[in-house]
Design a protein that fits this description.
The chain is an alpha/beta fold and 211 residues long. It has a single domain, classed as Vaccinia Virus protein VP39 (Rossmann fold, 3-Layer(aba) Sandwich), CATH 3.40.50. It has six helices and eight strands, in the order ααβαβαββαββαββ. Strands 1, 2, 3, 4, 5, 6, 7 and 8 form an eight-stranded mixed beta sheet that branches. Helix 5 links the parallel strand 4 and strand 5. The longest helix is centred in the N-terminal third of the chain and has 18 residues. The termini are far apart.
Length: 211
């Protein structure tokens, strides 16, 4: 997200929600509630068994995906390492405090669109591609960037343009178009919907799916 006005708008939106709903809350992130967030996480987690794997969470917020993965796979060795990145310092500060003392967890405040991403086993992006951008090819470039960083697979969600209402900050995407683009990058792609009214998820693998 190179546009400084877009960055400022995004940060203002979330800081307003922090003031309205309290720091560390699900609503501060822009989600309706934890149930809707967990419904998205459940689909993302279908990407494969994560035990011993390194994970990059793009747009990590408060690290809620890490907490969700810990709940569904409480074994301490479930993840090899978890890295979370987010634009908002407030989100990163909350995440760092939440998971302090865990050696295999790290959070960084940065603009992921400008970051050279580390190579990991799996990349997750929940909500990170829901914000408007004036760059015509922004979303395609980010999908390709995430996919390139993943050794095994990428899981991300988007708002559905056919169902999501007009919004000044958030934007829906053409599901068929996104699927076709992902299929141009990977021969093993799955699209999932139905878990939320206006959302869809793409799961992309670089080889045969591990089950």
């Amino acid at each position: 997200m190179v546009n400084l006005i877009e960055k400022a708008t995004l940060m203002h939106f979330h800081r307003h929600r922090i003031a309205e709903h309290s720091r560390g809350s699900t609503k501060a992130l822009g989600w309706k509630d934890q149930h809707s967030q967990d419904a998205r996480f459940a689909v993302l987690a279908r990407i494969g068994p994560l035990q011993g794997c390194t994970v990059l969470d793009v747009g990590c917020g408060h690290g809620d995906l890490k907490a969700y993965l810990d709940r569904i796979a409480p074994d301490a060795a479930a993840l090899g390492a978890y890295i979370g990145v987010d634009l908002l310092p407030e989100f990163i500060e909350t995440a760092q405090a939440r998971f302090s003392g865990q050696d295999n967890v790290a959070f960084y405040q940065c603009d992921f669109s400008q970051l050279i991403l580390p190579e990991v086993d799996y990349v997750f992006a929940s909500g990170a591609l829901s914000y408007r951008s004036t760059e015509v090819d922004y979303y395609q470039r980010m999908i390709a960037k995430f996919y390139q960083a993943a050794r095994h697979g990428l899981a991300f969600n988007m708002l559905d343009a056919a169902l999501f209402p007009e919004h000044p900050l958030l934007v829906g995407h053409d599901r068929a178009g996104v699927l076709a683009y992902c299929q141009s990058l990977s021969g093993n792609v799955e699209v999932v919907d139905g878990y939320r009214v206006d959302d869809f998820t793409l799961l992309m693998w670089k080889c045969e799916r591990v089950v």
